[in-house]
Amino acid sequence: MEINSADLMLCLAQAFVPPPAEWSVCDWGQPLVEDLCELGQALALDVSSIRAAVADAYRLWVEHARSAEGTADVWLVEYARLFLVPPVPVALNTSAYLEGALAGSSTQMIASCYGVAGFEPSGRLHDLPDHVAMQLEFLGKLYERAARGDADALGMAEEFIEEFLSAWIGPLCQACQVAAGRVPSAQVYYELAMLLKHAVGR
Questions:
Q1: Could you tell me the CA-to-CA distances from 195 to 19, 48, 55, 67, 179 in Å, in that order?
Q2: Nearest to 5 by CA among 201, 202, 199, 180
Q3: Per the confidence metrics, is the pTM higher than 0.85?
Q4: What is the mean pLDDT of residues 22-35?
């Protein structure tokens, strides 16, 4: 079970990292949905809403491409609209939800957890330690260690989820849901966040 949980966390971590600059929603979404469908079966998680959200995003992308402009934005532009361009509709640095400000004490506490576990982020993401993707990568690595028989790693993962992830996942879901009214791509990330919420809530 831990190895499937590890794969789910690492897959979701990748989903919240900025996509390659040239990728369309199809380039980004199709392999993600395939991976999540496989993991959903293994973990008894319903991923149909994610499949539908990615399909809707692709439909909007195609409609835009057929418009008078004749081109459609790459997925990185959609990602930037949602997570990077001020005023940011949705924060991926979770101290914004835990403390209402960036780089607060929770960021330092999360960094301390990484240090205690000997975790080094992969380097795909250059951001603060409280970024959603970095935290999910951390959990994925702990579950990988647990699958190899490291009981301490499983305990650390459970404690980290209780202390941090369980506190910010609800506000993240809500922020994505609100943003979906203005930024349609937010629905995709809402469904991803909801899947994470269901996975860790069991």
A1: 20, 10, 17, 33, 18
A2: 199
A3: yes
A4: 90
Q: Are 176 and 157 in contact (CB under 8 A)?
A: no
Tell me the average pLDDT of the chain: 90
User: How far apart, in Å, do the first and last CA atoms of the chain sit?
Assistant: 13
Can you read off the two tokens belonging to residue 179? 């943003």
CB 146 within 8 A of CB 157: yes
Instruction: Check residue 88 and report its DSSP letter.
Output: P
Write out the two tokens for 39.
């993991």
The pLDDT score that the predictor gives to residue 51 is 83
DSSP 78: H
Sign of CA dihedral 123, 150, 155, 112: negative
**What is the rounded (10 degree) CA torsion for 69, 72, 77, 82?**
90
The position carrying tokens 């293994």 is 42
Angle CA 158–39–168, to nearest 5: 40
Contact criterion met (CB below 8 Å) for 160 and 142: yes
What's the distance, CA 26 to chain centroid? 18
Q: In the structure, what pLDDT confidence band is assigned to residue 124 with cuts at 50, 70 and 90?
A: confident
- C-beta of residue 130 within 8 angstroms of C-beta of residue 106: yes
